[in-house]
């Protein structure tokens, strides 16, 4: 069963025929969420509570957030849950208030209870939503926890409420949030204070970056009274299982996991990427990993794919870490080659040894490419990820120590031809690096942050994120925010820098890149910006193919201009 063009359709899997079951009312963006019973569907839909005229050439903005990356204007838009009766053709809005906005929801196994995270707001959305329980039999909704009490869901990261044997649980954070670098824990929801059941110091989901992971998938699944979930471990993803009391390892995997589907604990499927590979479809049967489908096998067989070489180094605090090095195509040990330091976004994400198209393209163009997981990265617990109030400190030192290690272990890497590039937090660090060292001869800063003071009030994440990152605010020590802004150090930049931005990026808006571009041009530093129209923060991962190709060509041309022999 599916919904398309406001029609409920049934697909016959035997012959592929579609049958129209019902025509839905004109509710915008209705989507099938679940089956409540044989006659009732659970739908999601979006209400527009604005006063804007249809097809008008203006929009009124009067609340936070006004925009969200990938969605555009979200001012006065509210997501509701609906019940649809197939027999009576009646659509029922399950929201108790038209200004309620639902983030995430979970249905009990008996389909009698609905747990959902949501907010009722008119001006500013709470940082942490309320948690509600809806009795589908009586239609009554009860607030379990008010706003900013438990971190049950955010728009960016995975925290979840779920049922095990009709008992509600929360995989999130209770009490005062520790910010976006905090890892969730398991709580039993009993109507009073959440009861901590099992501690966990890793994230939910796979946060190992890749620009070749286009299949959206699930991070968890409830099967036979157990909660199976994916978690990031250092530089790869693994599956675990929670039975309501304890967490146990379920399946070890050396790469990334984008989605999984469990039939039984001994029989399940996953979409993932092993080291040096793109995504494959796997079948795990009785503990054996069977490769079912490799969609890019033929294409990659005709291309140079640089194998990853592990580079060990000692990070700040004597932490033993490792990164990776890709060798250039047609490598000759008697020659010298330029090198590029890649920095991931987040900062609470991670790099791993899986196939990364951008890096492979650069290696095929004759560059060493090296990358690691500095302080602030995911997969190594809260203590390693927590750099709040210290951006540009231990993370910067780690990247420099890693660069030193790569140079020491790679005699063919030319010290005088080094470049640095990254996007999002990686763009922030690129901006920071060029203002603190002149060891790099060229840079490419993508979808970056330049000014913590301005970014706080233009990003879709909102001021709370920047205030937490800097452990400061406009009221409390704004100088701390300026001290952690790369723009403050733009006068010190000598490195020719390419900026890449998208005009619909609401996460790290184009204004941030423009501030650095203008500053560098003002101080006489060679700089260039390429702006992609109609793209957002996801340009490098899911942008239009022509734009992604042009982006890579811009990067190649820039580094070739300044790092060529």
- Compute the average pLDDT: 93
CATH class of the largest domain: Alpha Beta
- Number of DSSP helices? 11
CATH architecture of the largest domain: 3-Layer(aba) Sandwich
Strand portion, in percent? 35-45%
The CATH topology of the largest domain corresponds to Rossmann fold
Question: What's the CATH H-level homologous superfamily of the largest domain?
Answer: Alpha/Beta hydrolase fold, catalytic domain
Helix content class: 10-25%
Rg, nearest Å: 25 Å
The coarse overall form would be globular
Low-pLDDT residue intervals, each spanning 5 or more residues: none
Q: What oligomeric state is this?
A: single chain
- In the sheet with the most strands, the strands line up as 27-28-30-29-31-32-33-34
Number of domain modules: 2
Distance between the termini: 59 Å
Which secondary structure elements does this structure contain, and how are they paired or packed?
Blueprint: E1 2-4, E2 7-11, E3 18-23, E4 31-35, E5 40-48, E6 67-68, E7 72-73, E8 77-85, E9 90-93, E10 100-107, E11 113-120, E12 130-135, E13 141-145, E14 150-151, E15 160-164, E16 167-174, E17 185-188, E18 195-198, E19 220-223, E20 226-233, E21 236-242, E22 247-251, E23 256-264, E24 267-273, E25 280-285, E26 288-293, H1 297-301, E27 308-314, E28 320-326, E29 337-343, H2 357-364, E30 368-372, H3 382-385, H4 394-409, E31 413-423, H5 425-434, E32 442-446, H6 452-455, H7 463-470, H8 478-483, E33 497-502, H9 510-522, E34 527-532, H10 539-542, H11 545-563
Parallel strand pairs: 29-30, 29-31, 31-32, 32-33, 33-34
Antiparallel strand pairs: 1-2, 2-3, 4-5, 5-8, 6-7, 8-9, 10-11, 11-12, 12-13, 14-16, 15-16, 16-17, 17-18, 19-20, 20-21, 21-22, 23-24, 24-25, 25-26, 27-28, 28-30
